[in-house]
Amino acid sequence: MTKRNLLILITLYTITTGFVPGGNGFYDSFFLAPTTSKVLRFYPNPATTVINFEFDKSVESTSLIAIYSFYGKKMSEQRLSSNKVSFILDDHYTRGLYVFQLRDQAGRLIESGKFQVSK
């Protein structure tokens, strides 16, 4: 088999097996159902003194949202009491990137994202 034919076979195999792990081929990799976000929005971004999170109504009140520094230090966390939560960004929050994680009661990750603090 020539190198050209081998390259064509590898390319065809890649296309027909899909680009998504666990996918069922080319069709699935482009036409997967969109995932719905549980964190509807967080604002302002970049934040200076406060960051607000709004959640989908389907998020359980037993869920927990935590904020981590970009280096992995847990800065603060709150249990969801409603579908809107605010964090006061005190002096421990310096300029930089922060990561939020929304977890269910069992500790499984529901969603994560990042935001910027500019002071």
Any key phrases for this structure?
119 residues, alpha+beta, Immunoglobulin-like, four-stranded antiparallel beta sheet, three-stranded antiparallel beta sheet, 2 helices, 7 strands, 17% helix, 38% strand
Task: Outline the structure in words.
- With 119 residues, the protein is of the alpha+beta class.
- The protein contains two helices and seven strands, in the order H-H-E-E-E-E-E-E-E.
- The chain folds into two domains: 1-33; 39-117, Sandwich (Immunoglobulin-like).
- 17% of the residues lie in helices and 38% in strands.
- The chain has a four-stranded antiparallel β-sheet with strand order 4-3-6-7, with no helix packed on it. Strands 1-2-5 form a three-stranded antiparallel β-sheet, with no helix packed on it.
- It is extended and about 65 Å long.
- The termini are far apart.
